Every structure is written in structure tokens, then in C-alpha cells.
């Protein structure tokens, strides 16, 4: 190890859990972080759920951590909007994870001339909501999306996600959204600020080259790629950038805490 690690950021799906089950080594990794008193956050581009919801889901899989240690794209988006226009207004398409975060950031949710149209993930995208968003954006509202993921998983197969619906709205308005979630380094920097950590001695653990690793690199973090998610070893060579370290799973990192 060339750089000491004092704080940790880690992706959730594909790193800690897979289809509702803890990946071997994940409970031990989180327990080691808590026992050592290391600052850490679990990051997710999922904007559907609140940290409380996600904490409960992780607990069901056997991973115990406080909700304060979960940082979602919805929370990062709400923080970004608060920094841009404190006490502003938004028309939000999304679930409780997004609307709760916006409310807690002091935002008013409205359909009447909002400062922002904020697109998050939901299982119930409606034609009416999308039409409203298009008209508001063409009327001057700024376009924000929580994350660029084009599909999400389900038991029946892939579902259209935020990035896919954002592309539809962009096509209709000619206005591209600003994506706050991974791989935007702003998500990682907001996470660092949340736990009072510095990029020089913080690591990011992820399973995707195109979100976790590239975002971590651009934020100046040490990056660990694990092979328990969507990336295979041969995939690494396809990218013009490399993670700092490649490991089989999160279990290989417990000793580094």
C-alpha cells in the first residue's frame, strides 16, 4: 500500500449485498470499520429509499450499520441544490428517498414555476409526470437528475431507470440534465465532507469501472475494484484508466481496516 487509508467509502450493491443477501466478508468489513472507529459511508445511486429504509434492508441481510453511514444520490442531490439555491423549489419525480431529502434540505415541492425539475428513480414513472417535467423545463426550470443509470434490476429483468427517462426528457426539451450521482466526483466530495475525510487518505470500494472507479479516481481517492458485482477481470483492460487495486471481494479488505 503506497497510501495510508484513514476513511472508507464503499458501494452497496455488488460490493456488500447481492439480491438481498450479504456478500461473504461484508458484515465483517463493516464491523471492522465500526470497531476501529474509521469514518466511512456506504454510497448508492439508488434514490428510491431513505437511509432508514436502506439500513433496515442491510440489517435483514446481516449487515448492521447506522443510517448516518448511508449516503444516497438523493441526499447528495438535495445537498447540491441547497448549496446552489438555498430554500429553493423543485418539481420532483421520484420516491420517498428523494422527496424526503429535498424537504429536509429546506426545499418546497411544487408544480408551479419551480427552480428545478429533479428526476429520480421510481417504479411508477407516469406519462403525466414526464409531460409536466418537459413543459416546466421548456418554461425555464433547471433540469437535475439524481444519477445516470439507464436500467435497474428486478426479478423479472432490467427496468428503465433515471438515465433512460432523463434521455427521453432531454430529447423532448433539448436540455441535458446535470447528474449528481456516480460517477460525478461531486457525490464523492459531498460524502467526504459528510464524514470530515480527505481524499488523500480515503479509499473507494466498488464493483463498476464506469461509476465507482472512475468517479473515485476523479475525486482523488484510492480505488479498490472487487469482482463480486458487474465487472469481470477481463473487463478492466477495456478502460483507459485503472483502479489502484483489484480484489476478489470485500473479504480481502477486512485486514486493511
TrEMBL record:
Which UniProt keywords are given for this protein, alphabetically ordered? Carbohydrate metabolism, Hydrolase, Magnesium, Metal-binding
The cofactors named for this UniProt entry are: Mg(2+)
Q: NCBIfam families, alphabetically? A: HAD-SF-IIA
Q: Where does Mg(2+) bind?
A: 11, 13, 207
Q: What is this protein called?
A: HAD family hydrolase
Which residues of this UniProt protein bind substrate?
A: 182
Q: Which Pfam families match?
A: Hydrolase_6 (PF13344), Hydrolase_like (PF13242)
Query: What Gene3D superfamilies is this protein classified in?
Result: HAD superfamily/HAD-like
Superkingdom classification of source: Bacteria
Q: Which GO terms describe its molecular function?
A: metal ion binding; phosphatase activity
Residues annotated as transmembrane: none
Record-stated family? Belongs to the HAD-like hydrolase superfamily.
Amino acid at each position: 500500500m503506497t497510501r495510508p487509508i484513514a476513511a472508507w467509502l464503499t458501494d452497496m450493491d455488488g460490493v456488500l449485498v447481492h439480491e438481498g443477501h450479504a456478500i461473504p466478508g461484508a458484515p465483517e468489513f463493516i464491523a471492522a470499520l465500526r470497531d476501529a472507529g474509521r469514518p466511512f459511508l456506504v454510497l448508492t445511486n439508488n434514490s428510491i429509499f431513505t437511509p432508514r429504509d436502506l439500513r433496515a434492508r442491510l440489517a435483514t441481510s446481516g449487515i448492521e450499520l447506522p443510517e448516518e453511514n448511508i449516503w444516497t444520490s438523493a441526499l447528495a442531490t438535495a445537498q447540491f441544490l441547497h448549496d446552489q439555491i438555498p430554500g429553493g423549489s423543485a418539481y420532483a419525480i421520484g420516491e420517498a428517498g428523494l422527496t424526503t431529502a429535498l424537504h429536509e434540505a429546506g426545499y418546497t415541492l411544487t408544480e408551479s414555476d419551480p427552480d428545478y425539475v429533479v428526476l429520480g428513480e421510481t417504479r411508477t414513472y407516469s406519462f403525466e409526470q414526464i409531460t409536466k417535467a418537459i413543459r416546466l423545463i421548456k418554461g425555464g426550470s433547471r433540469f437535475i437528475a439524481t444519477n445516470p443509470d439507464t436500467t435497474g434490476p428486478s426479478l423479472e429483468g432490467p427496468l428503465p431507470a433515471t438515465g433512460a427517462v432523463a434521455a427521453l426528457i432531454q430529447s423532448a426539451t433539448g436540455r441535458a440534465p446535470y447528474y449528481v450521482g456516480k460517477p460525478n466526483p461531486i457525490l464523492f466530495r459531498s460524502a467526504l465532507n459528510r464524514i470530515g475525510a480527505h481524499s488523500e487518505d480515503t479509499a473507494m470500494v466498488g464493483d463498476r469501472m464506469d461509476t465507482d472507479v472512475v468517479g473515485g479516481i476523479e475525486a482523488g481517492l484510492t480505488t479498490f475494484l472487487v469482482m463480486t458485482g458487474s465487472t469481470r477481470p477481463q473487463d478492466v483492460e477495456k478502460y483507459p484508466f485503472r483502479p489502484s487495486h483489484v480484489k476478489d471481494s470485500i473479504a480481502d479488505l477486512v485486514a486493511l481496516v
